[in-house]
Sequence to fold (331 residues):
Amino acid sequence: MTLMTKLLSASAALALTAGAALANPAVLFDLGGKFDKSFNESAYNGAQRWAEETGGSYDEVEIQSDAQREQAIRRFAEAGNNPIVMAGFSWATALSEVAADYPDTKFQIIDMVVDAPNVRSIVFAEEQGSYLVGVAAAMASETGTVGFIGGMDIPLIRNFACGYVQGVLATDPDATVIANMTGTTPAAWNDPVKGSELTLAQISQDADVVYAAAGGTGVGVLQTAADEGILSIGVDSNQNYLHPGMVLTSMLKRVDNAVYDALVAGEDLEAGFNVMDLSNGGVGYALDEFNEALITDEMKAALDAASAAIMSGEVAVHNYNTDESCPVYDF
Fold:
């Protein structure tokens, strides 16, 4: 083999290796980081499950500010990553700007709809899962007062709250629900100190079960609830393990499945609008060894009955996003 042949051979091998690397999918996490023990971590778990099962690898980024979003999407698209999966509604504006520039790249966004021929949009029926944990909260409460602590005050989080209140009041019409939001900026997703302060304030108003839908802020809610001897409810990921015996349950939002399915599909990812709800396992509640002593047989029967009623259409849980209103709570 001549020197030139060897060089060409090496170049070809290098090109093939580079091409293989460029085919990696990419996962873009939202503010708060992939180990927020909530939404982002659920996305991370889905990506890791895919990697472990297939032996594949994926590229990732944890942004530090909103200003990095468009640059991050373009960087991965230019590098040939496909598909590119974005965890969180806040990616929508940047994706809307970028998607048309890379028609051969498949994108998936979670929690928002971007209408483009190469984008798969995944939304969840958070109100359905939140209704179920509202049922559980009402049945577990001894004071008749329960709380909700949201992250950033946006329609998405109000939908969690509205579903929760509907479940509480359907179970105990005389119950009181206290709802607070952490803030109005993205910093609200990662402020466990504020989450703790809000929890203490709700406890002072007799709340003895508090549901947190606040990303990393929720870690402070669950910690303070446990410290003060009241029950909490986790969100997105199964957070029961964080404080065994003190987390009543967690509202599961299967972001992990949405990410896993996208990576399995790879470059064949189908664009379009998709809803993950109770009927397809997209939302639900967590029952495991860490909370089984808290979920009584009566509670389990009520939760199963509520699930069946929602899936059959007998119970229609109002979605705040449809009209930006909640018929049972005035935000």
Summary: Confidence is low (pLDDT under 50) at residues 1-22. The first helix runs from residue 3 to 22. The two ends are 76 Å apart (CA to CA). The longest strand covers residues 145-152.
